[in-house]
Write the structure tokens for this entry.
Amino acid sequence: MSENTNHLTNKLWSYCHVLRDDGLSYQDYLEQLTFLLFLKMADERAELTGEPSPIPAGYRWSDLSAPSMTGEKLEAHYRKTLEDLAKQTGMLGLIFRKSQNKIQDPAKLRQLIVELIGKEQWLSLSADVKGDA
């Protein structure tokens, strides 16, 4: 594992420990990270390719990570995002089917979005980094 891969993997796992200490199970924090990474990478892909995002407007990464999204507003918006994406047709609806926000502390959700996931360009990382993460 390269130093960059090791650093990023350690960063993710350290945050998983914080979520676990808040009562989230391994399955819960893995699921939440997957949903958030999916949204982040969908925005990155749309930006890189110039193709429209498969995520409807209002539910994109840029909406979740907006500076105005803090506290209860962020938590409510993330919950609504998961609920509404689950109602979409096709693969998007299947990915988010039965999704729920399990991160009850809005400050930790904000930190996860801004500090952990938001600071990386996930599509530019090697497949090994994403796999290790």
Residues 74 and 106 are 7 Å apart (CA to CA). The helical segments are 3-21, 26-49, 61-64, 71-86, 90-96, 106-117, 127-132. Residues 3-132 form a domain with the Ferritin fold (CATH 1.20.1260.30).
